[in-house]
Amino acid sequence: GNSVTQMEGPVTLSEEAFLTINCxxxxxxxxxxxxxxxxxxxxxxxxxxxxxxxxxxSNKGFEATYRKETTSFHLEKGSVQVSDSAVYFCALSDRDYxxxxxxxxxxxxxx
Amino acid sequence: xxxxxQTPRYLIKTRGQQVTLSCSPISGHRxxxxxxxxxxxxxxxLFEYFSETQRNKGNFPGRFSGRQFSxxxxxxxxxxxxLGDSALYLCASSSLAGGPQETQYFGPGTRLLxx
Lengths: 111, 115
Hints:
The complex is a heterodimer. Chain A has strands at about 5, 10-15, 20, 25, 30-40, 45-50, 55-60, 60-65, 75, 85-95, 100, 105-110. In chain A, the strands form 3 sheets. In chain A, strands 2, 5, 6, 10, 11 and 12 form a 6-stranded mixed β-sheet that branches. A 4-stranded antiparallel β-sheet of chain A has the order 3-9-8-7, with no helix packed on it. In chain A, a hairpin with a 5-residue loop joins strand 10 and strand 11. Chain A is mainly beta. In chain B, strands 2, 4, 5, 6, 9, 10 and 11 form a 7-stranded mixed β-sheet that branches. In chain B, strands 1-3-8-7 form a 4-stranded antiparallel β-sheet, with no helix packed on it. The interface of A and B includes residues 29, 45, 99, 100 and 101 of A.
């Protein structure tokens, strides 16, 4: 079946530091890949997505590239802010009408 | 456009009771999915509906059920509540046919506490 493995946290960074969260996946078909973010007490918000190999998703300074050869979709941001403190989830969607999520990575950015 | 709305936002029940949660998708969206989020199990898929038909179901006991109405609004029901059902229940909607390339937009969730 489909599965997503993402880097375990928590991750603590200083403002303006570089952030990377690793995500790898296993899928039987040709999935779409997503990064969602969850702020305390809220639901999930789409951060970015990529629907085919070599696609790069980007939003709010975050980027991730769909790498089929390494089955990866690592999230990066060059300079984090305190407001980026949240839980980040990598997810994939295949032909079965559902999202399969990683365990989530808690990121804390200190001023 | 208004986002996905879920009611109620918070709920406290006791073991053995049943509960019904409601979800209104984004206007025009016809696919609605439900997920359970717990600290121990993370985010787990419950079921997905499109045009009142359940197309997929996750590995949950039969106590968990759902339905979708002709206006795409959806409800999920949990009968004979157990302590382990305490969780954040998230609803998500997507447009068109809800295929793998489409984005699922999430509501704020209903936080259920079972005592």
